[in-house]
Amino acid sequence: MSKLAPRLGVLVLLLPACTDDSSALTAATTAVLTTVGATQTTTSTTTGDPTTGEPTTAVTTDEPTTDVGTTTTSSTTDVSTDTTDGTTAAAESCKDGLQNGDETDIDCGGAACPACPDGDACVLDDDCAGHSCIDGSCGPVPATCDDELQNGDETDLDCGGPDCPACGESQACAVDLDCATQTCIDGICQAPTCSDDLTNGDETDVDCGGPECDPCGAALDCLIATDCQSGVCLDGQCAIPLCNDGAKNGDETDLDCGGKSCSPCADGLACKLDADCLKKDCEAGICVGPTCNDGVKNGGETGIDCGGPDCGPCMAGVGLVINEVDYDQPGSDNAEFIEILNTSGAPIDLGNHAVVLVNGATNTTYATINLAGSINPGQYLVLANANFAVPAPALKVTISNGIIQNGGSDPDGIALIDKTAKKLVDALSYDGPITAVNIAGIGVVSLVEGMALPASVIDDAAGAGSLVRLPNGKDSNNAASDWKFTKNITPAAANLP
């Protein structure tokens, strides 16, 4: 036994056997001895003597591990070690394998210890490493797509992952499905392109289909016909163009017709060439049946727009005719012209022919334009200024700008003459009749064939147009029926209504 126990015994014996001084009693019965480097607790208990009623004191003392060095008087004390600020003691209590202090679980939680892992007990979110205390237990933060936090399986703020909307361009991602663009490259959502070797965006197959990229080829995936080069999407795949697939595809000019592979199209269907049409007549992109003013020898015609059961009789040996005249235009006359057509079946020498322009106000000629060369059957000759474009195989003779008079209050006229035969070949009097004019080498002639043009049939300067023979090339020697006004100017081509 240590020396401490006898000393305590002496202390107790010295206490007065009976006293009313409670403070003295308390001071005498609360002695606590503490030894540096060990823990010793002395407990004094005051009870009443059952025989005398006087208070008595019992003392229980834990044996110290070492001799007493320094003695302190206090209440019951549990000391682990000497500290100056309590920091070391708190740190060591977070490693003692016990839940003590304000810890919410063993050695974690509370103000002093580390936050607890998922599954441990907690009181506040800050008690948890994941900052989420749910029903007294640390657990993962429930992912929400509108909490302005990146949590759960989100790849960026409130987007990506299996539960939230796809992320926009430049936001973080893990897989393509995390991105609204369906393109995740190097962890970042990218804008899809039609050359990134991926099926993304609105594409139906790799870099094709959809509203932005080129149509897909045969056997590639599609959703609608426009996704395919063939125009046919069958069972989710682009089909090869056929002439009976119910779609306008390949080089067809209309639905399952026209082009190089399919049968010609019927009247009223689209075309590009005469060969696209069943009746070999494509006008303004539409297949039409033969007409008597299409400038083509077709149908039952025996000549260009003449003969056969439907058109008027062909004029035997007509030869050269004045076929179209544009003599007045809005603004300046910088594109006026005269067109001549060979309606015969043989070439004609132009070297002995000339075009004579007549002023009706004085019934005199004011210009003679000599022709040269040879013109083939069905070929056109255009008299126009130097800048006027005339497509081959038509011929051209250059004339001065504005040389063709506009008529107006007085008539004007054009005469096509054969100088060798000394005869009038064809003539036109416009804006009124010229019935007598003296042409050198020919004599006095009328420029009105049959009945004169009505006063309403003129080349009106208020709008673009010309006077034309309709049907094209028709010369029945009656000006009133042969000539019409049209807004469809066609130099070096067949006349149109």
From TrEMBL:
Q: Where is this region: Disordered?
A: 41-86
UniProt xrefs under InterPro entries? Lamin_tail_dom, Lamin_tail_dom_sf
- Residues forming the LTD domain are 307-432
Keywords for this entry?
A: Signal
Ranges annotated as spanning the membrane: none
What span is annotated as the signal peptide, if there is one? 1-27
Q: Which PANTHER family match?
A: LTD DOMAIN-CONTAINING PROTEIN, SI:CH211-183D21.1
Indicate what this protein is called per its UniProt record: Lamin tail domain-containing protein
